[in-house]
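Late entry, written up from scratch paper. The run itself happened at the end of the previous shift, but nothing got recorded in the book at the time, so transcribing now.
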Amino acid sequence: MRSSITDKEPSEEASSGVTEPKIAHRFWNPIRALLQLRVFQALRHREFRLLWLGQASTGMGTWMDQVTRGWLIYELTDSAVQLGLVRGIQAIPYLLLSPIAGSAADRYSRKTQVIVAQVVNGLVYAVTALLIFSGEIKPWHVYVTALIMAIVQVFQQPARTAMVSDAVPSGSLTNAIGLNAVVFNVARSAGPALAGMLIALFGTGGAYSVQAFFFLLATIWTFQLRPAQTTIASRRHSAQHESFGRSIIEGWKFSWTNEEVRTSLLIVTFASLFIVPFTTLLPVFARDILGVGATGQGLLLTAMGVGALCSAILIASIGDELPRGMLMLGGVMVYGFLIVLFAASPWFEFSLVLMGLVGLCHVFAHALVQTVIQSYSPSEFRGRTTAIFHMSQVIMTGGSMLVGALSSFVGATWAVASMGIAGALTMVGIYLALPRARLIR
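Output as recorded:
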């Protein structure tokens, strides 16, 4: 059953004979006023609020790990190669386990799948902190925990993503995904900064302790979710009539035969292969081309984050009124041409502006793709289609390797520019080959 239950307003509770203390009214009134704004529409629904709070907590912990894990392995090994390796192994579970995770999300309780993943993730962080504080931490511990964390993330993502559609009415789905993108980008900015501060004050053990706490918070929020009984019953009935392997095949078949879902997956696939990986070479542009060093690289990423945040707020505000098909195709095509301009830019200030626009296009296309996939996938297929969507991270890893290899032959500028052009042209190809794609709403 789609959960669209909203909490009672104070006026409703007063009419039912319930008298709240004045301090409670003072606390509630500003929040109530805030929720009346269109941009926060989905937060009026209790189930989504809990999911959103859980997303904020896990987002902070996960983005903190981007800094903490790299710092830890570098402290232990003094090896730049191992910095790349510890990230590279995290792509393996996405490649091997995403279809299984998506099928599990469609067959069993999504709430349970998310809770188990969060508990395991929190325990991994807590154990890592204990190993650091005890002085027993070794490089192989970092690799093993990185792999475990990637595995549980693979199982958490499709279940949590599919739950969003069960938590809000269809008319609020774009707003809900936009709000998730907002909190994702806030965490992307705040998480690494918090991790850096904690490492400076308490070492990596302190950072990992706080990461474990964030996952504890997420688990508390998720436990309060109500089960969607009708949806679970429907998925279990479906599961009785097909094997697990057959369930995976049916998910891929549906994703290909449904034109809206297929189009969305093609868009995110080509964007992840040709366009998004340009950030792999950002250190080269910052140091060797723009001459701004690590500080300048940080400012470039910040500009991209600001653009992404603005885009997420825009989608949350008016996303359901937008022509999604045209904006998905047009957003990614513009994204490709923007990184061509970025590759050619010799001016840091101009590059900053371009990175802001890149962030705008990145989230604009990414969030709309996710909205279309969820909107056009029945609940019994939603876990599998979102799992395929999240496999774009594997494609992104391949794209990073491709742009790195290409840059060794033609240089960073031509490598990024050529892949940007390729990505933009694939959008033109989809526009011409799939005429109905431009009609997606």
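Residues 7 and 46 are 6 Å apart (CA to CA).
(Scratch paper discarded after transcription.)
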